[in-house]
Amino acid sequence: MDFDEIDQEEIEEFVDSSEDFDEEEEVESRNKILESFTKEKKKNYFDEELVKDLIINKYQPFLVYETYETDENEKKNCISRENAPKDVERQIMGNLFLIAKAIINKYRYWRFEPIEDLQAEALSAMWKYLPNYDPSKGSAFDLFSIICKRHLLNYTEKNLRHRTTTDVDACFDLSTQEEINYNLFFENLEKTFLNIIDRNYIGEQRKKYIEFTSILMEYLDKNRKIVGKNDLLSAFKEYGYKSTEYKKFIDEMSKYKQEFYK
Length: 262
Hints:
- By secondary structure, the protein is mostly helical.
- Helices cover 62% and strands 5% of the residues.
- The chain contains eleven helices and two strands, in the order αααββαααααααα.
- A two-stranded antiparallel sheet has the order 1-2.
- A hairpin with a 4-residue loop joins β1 (64-69) and β2.
- 24% of the residues are buried.
């Protein structure tokens, strides 16, 4: 796909706004979404044309929007889904559930959080974006995949400080445990990245660089011994970022190479 067709600012604005929901209300909402449709989906493939037709012709027309002006153009915000057909919503979410399962497995997010929580989080994020879906900006599969990936990345990163990598009572002979050496290396590398970013960057740039760090560490953890430049660029593109953004991130981090060498 051509990621230039995707409205990155709109997606980033959506991901940012999704963090403002009341936590208890969000948990209850996402669990209802997860429970409401999982039994409806019988096929094991994502039906692009069906999903597009359901959203545009059978779902969005029943939503209530309010419009507001921005500096550049007019935008609309969904204020009610009360009249949206529930059977149509279940069909849509049943297909999006396939995206969530595939991404959770491909990127091994189950290492960090329970699968049910990850599925519910991913579905909640995609459900929120249904009123904003515009087929002129890309396929449903590509757009909702990016929403899902970014939300899970932010969700697991947010819970990072609450996770432990090993049992506090465990003792390891590091000279004979290559896997543990890798884990310690990646943990220290990630801490170095985050310390540099916290000290030197603020606002949206800081937030984006933290996300880039998570993507990079995820890629390195999966590949470990063999790292390809083009393959690494593809990893960032899968999250909807352009190669120029990734290269700028690397150029910025190279200013602090002495800290990485240490």
